[in-house]
Amino acid sequence: VVIQEQVVSHMQTSTRNAKSGLFVNLALVTVLLTIGLIVFGAVVRVTDSGLGCGNDWPLCDGRIFPPLDNVTAWIEWSHRLFAALIGVLGLAMLWKAWRAYRGKNVIVLGSTVIAALLFVLQSALGAFVVIFDLPPTMVTLHLGTAMLLLAALLVAGIGAWHRPARDMLHTADHVTALAYITAALSLVIILSGALVRGSGATLACTTWPLCNGEIIPAGDSLRMVHMMHRLAVAGLGLTMVMLIWYVYRERQSGMLRGMSVAALVTYAAQALVGAFYVWSSAGAVWGAAHVGLASLTWALLVGVCAIDTLNSRTVSEKQILWQQQSETATG
Fold it and tell me: Which of 52, 164, 175, 254 has the fewest CB atoms nearer than 10 Å to its CB?
C-alpha cells in the first residue's frame, strides 16, 4: 500500500511538473514574441508606417490584404498580424493557467488574467491610434500598455517556474524597494522617450551627451523635453549601479545577481544606441534597436523584482505556517 501511494504521488508530481513546464515554455515564447512586437512597433514608427493602412482598422484601407506595392501598408499590416499571433498564444496561456493553477497559484493565474486584459486594452489603443491619426499621447499609452503586458507575461512565467532555494530566502526590505523603484524609473524613461518622438523633439539636440553644448538648454521647449529624457536615463544608470551593489551585498541568489548585471549591460548598450540614433540623424535601424534594448532592460528589471518578491513571499508564507503550528501546539 505504501509503495502504491508513493507511485501515485510520483505520478501526480510528474503530471504537475509537465503542466508547469508546458506553461513556462508557452510563457517564454509569448514573452519573446512580445519583445519582438515592441521592436516591430518601433519599426512602424521610425519608418512612418503608422498610417500605412490609412485610418482603417482592423482592415487595411477597406481590404483584407494591402496592395503588394504599398510597403508602408505591409509594415503596418504585418505588425497587426504579429499582435494577433500573440493574442492566440495569450489565450492558450489563459486556458493553461486556469486548468493548472486555479486555486493553487494566485500569482500565475492572476498575472495571466491581467496580461489578457492588457492585451485587449493594447489592441483597443492601437485601433484608436490609427483612427485618430497617431496622437502622441495615445501612442505613448499604447507603448506603455505593451510594456505592462510584457511585465505581466514575465511574472506569470517566472511564478510558474521559479522555486526559491532555502539559502535564497529573505524578507522584503530596502533592496526589494530599490528594485521596484529602478523598474518603475525604467518604465518612465521608456514613456518619456515615446513623448520625445511624438512631440517632434527627436533631433532637437543634435549632439550627445550634451544638447548642442548645454546641459540644461534654455529658451527651447523641445530641447528641454529631449534633455530631460537624457537626464532621466542618467538617473536610471545611478539607481542600477546601486541596485547591483545591494544585490551583491545582501542577496545570495546568483540569478538575481546575474539578471541585475545583465540589466545594467543592456541599459549601457541602450544608451550608446541612443547616441548613435542622434548622431545618425534618427536612423531607423538605431531607433528600432533603441526601443528593443529599452524593452529588454525593462524585462530584466521586472524579472529581478519578480524573483526577489517570490523569495520574500516564500519567507512570509513559512512564517505564517510556523505561527499557526506554534499556536496549535500551545493551544
Answer: 254
Tell me what pLDDT residue 5 has.
39
Rounded Cα gap, residues 74 and 82, in angstroms: 12
Q: Where are the beta strands (DSSP E) in the chain?
A: none
Hey, how many other C-beta atoms are within 10 angstroms of the C-beta on 68?
8
CB within 8 A of 115, min separation 6: which ones? Answer: 90, 93, 94, 149, 152, 153, 156
Residue 124 has pLDDT above 60, yes or no: yes
pLDDT value at 165 more than 90: no
DSSP classification of residue 208: S
pLDDT at 242 over 90: yes
Determine the pLDDT at residue 192: 92
Rounded distance between C-alpha atoms, residue 277 and residue 274, angstroms: 5
Given a cut of 80, whether residue 179 has pLDDT beyond it is: yes
Which pLDDT score, from 0 to 100, does residue 320 have? 40
- The 10 Å CB-count burial string (b at 16+, else e) for 154-184 is bbbbbbbbbebeeebbbeeeebbebbbebbe
Q: Which residues pair with 63 in a beta bridge?
A: 60
Residues ≥6 apart with Cβ < 8 Å to 85: 33
Three cell numbers written together for 299: 524585462
